[in-house]
Amino acid sequence: MAGRGRPTRATVYERLDRALEELNQRLGGLPSPTEAQEIWSDIWHLEAHHSTALEGNTLVLREVQTLLDRGIAVGAKPLREYNEVKGYADAAKWVYGQALEPEVWNEGELISLGELRHIHHTAMTPVWDVAPHPDATDQEGPGSFRQHDLHPFAEGMTPPGWPLVPAEIQAWVAQVCATGKKIESGEALGHPLPEELARIHNSFERVHPFIDGNGRSGRLALNLILVRLGYPPIIIFKQQRDGYLAAMRRADAGDHGALGELIARAMEENLNRFIVPNVAGPARLVPLAALVDDEFTIAALRQAAQRGRLNAVQGADGVWRSSRKSVESYRASKHKQPKGRSAKKKPSPAGLFDVGTEADSSA
Questions:
Q1: Are 107 and 180 in contact (CB under 8 A)?
Q2: Cβ(183)–Cβ(229) under 8 Å?
Q3: How far, CA to CA in Å, does 1 sit from each of 15, 262, 308, 316?
Q4: Distance between CA 200 and CA 60 in Å, rounded?
Q5: Consecutive 10-residue runs of the chain (363 residues): their mean pLDDT?
Q6: Phi-psi domain of 220 (left: phi exceeds 0; alpha: psi -120 through 50; beta: other)
Q7: 159 contacts 206 by C-beta, under 8 angstroms
């Protein structure tokens, strides 16, 4: 941590490493969709909303949830926008299911060309049914590579000519699979994992293999890769759009640091927000970051733990850990405290999961 400000990139990477180790060694890794439907459903709603919003979709989260859960299009948006969300959500559900069922993919092959085309076909077909790309030929529909050259991007990067696309995207698939074998064998990558993931994501977008839907397909493909490696999928939030595009521009020039940091933060966010608190159970010790909610910030929980108000332990790695049960006990004790009064006696030593009665009016 640099002073009291934003954590350094190295700190973000170290924090992610610890969180992943916690997930895999103490908590048994990612849950499957059938084991934890609620966790994946929450991630699914948010990803479908934010990833399409990055491309200009105007549905709000409530409209996305109603569409996906009840099949009802509320609001007065163009049909194309509802179909964009539905197509993306169908593709994301396929990604989650395929990634977590090892019998359906060849170990060591994180993604295949056929799977990539299937992702694009699933995500884009509903859109294409009502609003096909105006420049597309019959051979450039969902799941098919472009047969047009693209104009240079506003930032200056020019995708390869269309005759080169099949070979370049096949080379990308081969590079991803080679990287996956390195990661699974524990072989050093030569740079932080998030920056390797950034390189993978940026390399796909630089090829831009489809005439439309490359951003959505690229983020879905990255999530397929992540979950097959045992990592949480990521969500790039719509409010991060400017930072995401700026990081992609820097990656175009060979600097993958900013994009790597964004990916690392997104992985940790999904771990702490959805996965760890749910797979751990109410009494299982987890880092305080996974117990943050609308009432308690991580700073408030850490302060309560240090003062003995929240039952918690500090590990040899310096990380404070507590449980949902202990946080709920602490919450109840705070709410019982009469306004304008503070507890005067010090908390007595207690077991980690004893229900505390000491109120804390300052954290």
A1: no
A2: yes
A3: 11, 17, 24, 18
A4: 30
A5: 72 92 84 72 93 96 95 93 97 83 63 95 97 93 95 83 97 95 88 96 97 96 92 94 95 96 95 81 82 89 91 84 87 72 43 33 33
A6: alpha
A7: yes
